[in-house]
Design goal:
Helix content is 72%, strand content 0%. With 219 residues, the chain is mainly alpha-helical. It has 2 domains: 104 residues, Serine Threonine Protein Phosphatase 5, Tetratricopeptide repeat; 108 residues, no CATH class.
């Protein structure tokens, strides 16, 4: 990686820490601060371990910082593929700094690596969906359309359509934008797929009654 690229990634890490405290989930505030303190004190292995635990729990700022430490190889062997995975996780969760980080990492990422990253993201997001996380449906649609080297627009539109149906923020806008790019047959195939996905979502174990599937009764 070029020195200029490494410098820009380093600056992104500092910016994330400055904004991270207020953005992190309340139950993770102290743990996030401890991870930052460990890094600043030079205890980078401890910092990576702490950020990794927080990232696995869904803390977007921890996901972003873990991505940076992975690509810099600080406290953990450098791994660009894992860095890109966590950068995308953070980006999909709304961390603005991760937009630029993803773009920088993708400059030096091979197509087959992008395929691996997309596959891992899809697998993990599916687990979150099965656990009842509706927002992950929109994220999954974005992965299929934005991360895969050859976009799966039909699958992407199907998941965005379901996400919009259960009122995930911004899902309707992204659904409509993607719809305009697709032909009539592909669009209909995606909509038919969305009906099946929606039925599966409504029938899943642990469904909160009335939250997202009330419309099913009117069909």
């Amino acid at each position: 990686m070029h020195n200029k690229l490494r410098t820009r990634i380093g600056l992104t890490l500092v910016a994330a820490w400055m904004a991270g405290g207020a953005m992190a989930a309340a139950h993770n505030d102290a743990e996030f601060a401890e991870a930052v303190a460990a890094y600043k004190a030079g205890n980078k292995i401890i910092a990576v371990s702490a950020f990794r635990d927080l990232a696995a729990d869904g803390n977007p700022e921890a996901q972003h910082n873990l991505a940076i430490l992975l690509v810099k190889g600080e406290g953990v062997p450098r791994n660009d593929r894992e860095a890109l995975y966590w950068a995308w996780r953070a980006r999909l969760s709304g961390v603005k700094q991760s937009v630029g980080l993803v773009q920088l990492l993708e400059l030096e990422t091979a197509e087959d690596t992008m395929e691996l990253v997309a596959t891992k993201l899809e697998k993990d997001l599916m687990l979150r969906i099965k656990g009842g996380d509706a927002a992950s449906m929109l994220a999954l649609g974005r992965v299929k359309n934005e991360v895969r080297p050859e976009p799966d627009q039909i699958g992407a539109l199907a998941w965005m359509t379901v996400a919009a149906a259960v009122n995930v923020e911004h899902a309707g806008l992204l659904r409509d934008a993607l719809t305009l790019e697709m032909g009539v047959e592909d669009r209909q195939e995606a909509q038919d797929m969305a009906v099946k996905l929606f039925d599966n979502w409504c029938a899943r174990d642990g469904q909160d009654e009335g939250v997202s599937c009330a419309t099913r009764a009117s069909r």
